[in-house]
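WARN retry 2 of 3 for item q-0093 after timeout on previous attempt; input resubmitted unchanged.
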Amino acid sequence: MDKFKEFLKRKDIVISAKRYGIDALGAMAQGLFCSLLIGTIVKTLGQQLGLAFLVDVGNYASAMSGAAMAVAIGWALKAPPMVLFSLATVGYAANALGSTTLAGTSDGAGGPLAVLFIAIIAAECGKAVSKETKIDILVTPLVTILVGVALSAWWAPAIGSAAKAVGAFVQWATVLQPFWMGILVSVVIGMALTLPISSAAICAAFGLTGLAGGAAVAGCCANMVGFAVMSFRENRWGGLLSQGIGTSMLQMPNIVRNPRIWLPAILTSAITGPIATCVFHLEMNGPPVSAGMGTCGLVGQIGVWTGWISPSEQALASGAAAISPTAFDWAGLILISFVLPAVLCWAFGLLFRRIGWIKEGDLKLD
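OK item q-0093 returned
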């Protein structure tokens, strides 16, 4: 056992929730952002401007999402170069097969989830054999690719079916109970955005679109804009921008020291979520990953807009259709994304400061 532990240490194979559930998941979201999300935005702009070149660029970027996610995961796991490069094939296979279901249909939502599980295993297997033989240039890529593709063929369709079922249930429940599910989805996804995990990857893995996606956008915005405004007196304009269009994850060290500073954002998300679903019927029909981005680079808002004019494949599979947004739609997007989070979270924060739950300096960023 001691020799095995020493081997894992030498190979930098760390079996932990942080390495797989935080580092790998967060990196996967970045890979997804740099391929599918950017590709969708560019393609939509090309369609609206009548520029075929941009449409082609968007298609190429989107097609590489599986490879981009897997390579990003390998980077987070500190894979050596031969393993890292081999993961491109693994990611492509896992994403393609995870996007199908056990019934053989191609409307599964489990591509990103399949990539996460399979790329982690393939990367660790590749790391285990890396530089252990004199023919490393053959052994390492062969082991990484064969393990990854075999697991993709074996597991990915089942993962696709499971992810599709979970995502469909959440969307069905949100339509059936938009008030209560609006609260639940908004609070959970908003908290996931602030925690050191990836809300974007979660939304992508389960294909959250429609009203459920709209509630997710509301929760993320409540945390990002909420913390940015609530902490303005401590962090001024730099903090407003870094949290408002960056990430509320910057507040995690302060939340650990005083968890009560999170309550204003959580309460705000519990209010804006059902307003999004019940009042404005805000739907995220762009790429599901956008639902977990909030105001980060305004990706959430761009996702809603692209969903209005050119719904994603996942949204189309759920019955979405292109619309011409009205002034009411735009008002709902602006209120849910910016105005209500800023006003409500500031008000809750002021109340908690007065009763002593939040003290001066509790929201100061390092």
